[in-house]
UniProtKB/TrEMBL annotation:
Gene3D superfamilies: Spore Coat Polysaccharide Biosynthesis Protein SpsA, Chain A
Glycosyltransferase 2-like domain span: 52-186
Pfam families for this protein: Glycos_transf_2
Family to which the UniProt record says this protein belongs: Belongs to the glycosyltransferase 2 family.
The organism of origin for this protein: Hymenobacter jeollabukensis
Entry's transmembrane regions: 6-28, 292-311, 348-371
InterPro entries: Glyco_trans_2-like (IPR001173), Nucleotide-diphossugar_trans (IPR029044)
Name of the protein in question: Glycosyltransferase
Record carries keyword Methyltransferase: no
Superkingdom field: Bacteria
Keyword annotations of the record: Glycosyltransferase, Membrane, Transferase, Transmembrane, Transmembrane helix
Single GO MF descriptor: glycosyltransferase activity
Amino acid sequence: MPFHLSPVSWLLVLSVLVQLVYAAYYFWPFALRRPAETAEPAPQHEQAHPVSIIVAARNALEQLRYLMPELLQQDYAQFEVVLIDDRSDDDTGLYTQQLTQYYPNVRLVTIGSTPEGIAPKKYALTLGIKVARYPYLLFTDADCQPSSNQWLRHMARGFDGGADIVLGYGPYAEAEGLLNKLVRFETLLTGLQYLSFAERGQPYMGVGRNLAYTKATFMATKGFASHIRRLSGDDDLLVQDAVQLGRRASVVTAAEAQTISQAPDSWGQWWRQKRRHMSAGSRYRFSDRVRIGTFILANGLFYVGTLVAFVVPEPEWVALAAVWGLRTSTVVATYAQASRRLHDRQPLWLFPVLDAGYFFAYSLLTASLVLNRNPSRWK
């Protein structure tokens, strides 16, 4: 009897094949690679790579009380901290002014108002970059914590070899609850995508809580000029513009080079955050949109095809079980290896559930952006 599969089964097979191609070409080479990421002291080298750490903050006094000591204790030969007080109503400015009296490498930029029609965070970062003394810029957020006092050293070493951009990883702290697990899984998956693509020579984004680039790169892109009115994109759209100009990116994944953040503690907060981040995607280069979109679409069609397969007459259970078994084992193994490379261990047994939940949420987020293109404002 000739071998026959229904259109739904062929859809499932095709979607899994696409995912296997991504796993074989991008994800597995990245996940299995073990780069030498030592950070032995090299004072002469570090003197040649002085760094300005730039932090934009609004009403973030409590977060800064934890962050600033960690930044000031970084084990690096020459650096400064540029803190931008963006229209704060609390004592952020006063706290930083007190630090400047004791630490000459702390500088304060105070913003009283933002010009109409300009994204506030991009305006704040622009002013901070303009006053930065050093040619190498390292960015994080006020609610982050470097994972070690070697964070700056590892990230700065990413500029070795002539890189213009250094892409780091910023996981969220582990906490109780399903939301935290979903947020951490989504962060792992996003990190796996943009870091593995970059290692294949196809960088398309970075995350502002752990990102570095040269001041010359910022000047070459004319700063955030091409997207200055968009609320999001101070990180990924800057990388997009820089890559378009031929700037090179490197990847740093050492455990000591991470910044840890507290995950959103409510579904509404996470939803607004994701809408803001995803709204920048329409400005990506066409090739990047195709590359990312194909991966997302293949995963989405897999779940749609599975739902359809259960309701059609005489489901092909053997084919469905085989496809599901192949995909599930590949997904779990890939994410497990990626979590080791990124030093972000997560519960393996939940990966299939979180994967399905993420792509369901992604579909809803995409639909919401199509229906309402106004993302939430930053702070």
